[in-house]
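U., I forgot to send this yesterday:
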Amino acid sequence: MLRAVAVLAAVAVLYYPAARLGLLLQFRHTNVSPVWPPSGVAVAALLILGTRVWPALAAAAFLVNLTTGLTPAVAAAIAAGNTGEYLVATALLRRAGVRTELTRIGDVVLLSVLGGVAAPVVAATTGTVALWLGGVAPAGTLRTVWTTWWLGDGIGVIVFAPVVLVLHAALHRPHRRGWRDLEGAALAAVTAEVAAAVFLGSGGFAYMLFPLAVWAAVRFEQVGAAAVTLGVSSLAIWATVHGRGPFASGTMNDRLTQLQLYSAAVGLTALVLAAAISGRRESEARVQQRTAQLEASNRELGAFTYTVSHDLRAPLRAIHGFARMLDAADGAALSPAGARHLDTITRNAQQMGRLIDSLLAHAHLGGRRLILQPVDPATVARTAAEQLRAGADGGRRVDITVDDMPRCEADPVLLGQVYENLIGNAVKFTKVRERAVIQVGARRGGDGDGGGPVYFVRDNGIGFDMRYSHKLFGLFERLHTGPGFTGTGAGLAIVHRIIDRHGGRIWAEAEPGQGATFSFTIGHGGEQP
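Result:
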C-alpha cells in the first residue's frame, strides 16, 4: 500500500513541474502552451507503470490549472480532458503492440501518430470547450486555441515521451564507459554550439542539426536520439515563442506549424534511424545465438551418431562371427530352411555393417575441416570415372564423357567424393541399358544460381518420378529397392551435406525411363563456362 502511494506521489511530483514549465510559454489569459511537456511525461508513465497511476495525473493536472486562476469547474474539465488524452494514447499504443524501448521503427511511428497526432484531439477539444464555456477564450479565438493546444500536446508526446521511455530502458542495461563518454560529451558540445548559432545567433539553416541527430542515433541509438531531439526542440520552441530563430516570422499559427513539423522531422529522423540500428543489432545477435545453438546441436548429434555407430559394431561383429563359425562347423548338417536362415543372418549383418559405415561417413563430414583450394572439377571427375568404369559389369558398354569445366574453389577430396557418388549412381541405374551414356559437365548458371557455373552429371538410366524428389537426399532414403539396385541410401545424403558445406545447393531432374540429371553449385564461386 505504501509503495503504491509512493508511486502515485512520484508521478504527480514529476508531472507538476513539467506542467509549470509548459505554462511559462503559454499565451496570455488562455492557459494554452505551444508545447506541453506533461503530455509526453504522462504517456510514458502510463506505458511504464500502467494505468493505475492515472489518478495522480488527474490530480496534478487539476492542481496545475487551478493555480493559474481558473475556476474549479474549468480546471476540473481541463484535467479530465488531459487525463482522457493520456489514457486514450496508452490504450491505442498498447493495442498496437508498441515496445517501450522503441527498438523498432514501427514503435517510433506509432508513438508519433497515435500518441502525438490522434490522442491530443481529446484534450484539445475538451479544453477549448471548457475555456469557451468558462468565458476565458472568446469565440473568435477558439480555432487558434484548439490548434495550439493540439500542436503543443503533440510536440510534448513526440519530444518528451521518448526521453522518459529510453532513459527508463537505459537504466536496465549495462553502461559502457570509456571513449563513448568522451564522444557523448563532444556530441553534446557540438550540438549545443550549432543549435545556439541557428536559433539564438544571427540565424541559419535549421536543418544543419540533422547530421548531429544522425550522429547521435548511429553511435548512441535511442538514448542519443532522444537527448538530441529534446535539446534541439526545446531550444527551437523557446526561440520561436520569443520571436527568434528561423521560425520567428509570420503569424503565431504559421510559426507553430513550422515548429511542429521541424520538431517531428528531427525526432522521427533520429528515433527511426536509432530503431533501425537497434533492430539490426538485435537481429544479428539472434542469428549469432541461433547459429551457436545449431552448431552445438550438430556437434552433439555428430558425437552421438559416432558413439552409437561404434557401439553397434561390437554386437554386429559377434553376430557375423558366430554365423560364420556356425556355417563352418555345422553348415553341412543344417536343413535347407536352416541354411537359408543362416544366410539371411549373414547378409543382414553385412548390410548392417554397410549402414553403420555410411552413418559414420555422414557424421564425419560435420567435423571435417574444409581445405579450400582452386580445383579443376574435370580432373577430379575423370579420376572418379576411371575407377567406376573399371568396376562396371563387363557385359555392357559404359560410356562416360567428362567435358572441360570451369575451375572452382573447393575441397578436392570431398569434391572427388561427390563425383564418385553421382557417377556411381549413374553407372548403377543404367544397368538396364545395353549402352550406358553418362555425361559430366557444366553450364552457365542463372540469377538464381548465384551467377556461378552449374555442374551436372546426366545419365540415360531408369530415372525416377519427380513427385518423390524430396526424398532423394534424405539419409537411408531409396527410391529404387529392386534386387539389381543395391545400396544403403546414404550416398546422396553425403553428397548433399558436402555441397551444403561448400555453400552450394544440389537438385535433380528426371523422368521415369528417361534418365536423370543431378546438378549442383559450389557457393565459393567459380569461372563461368
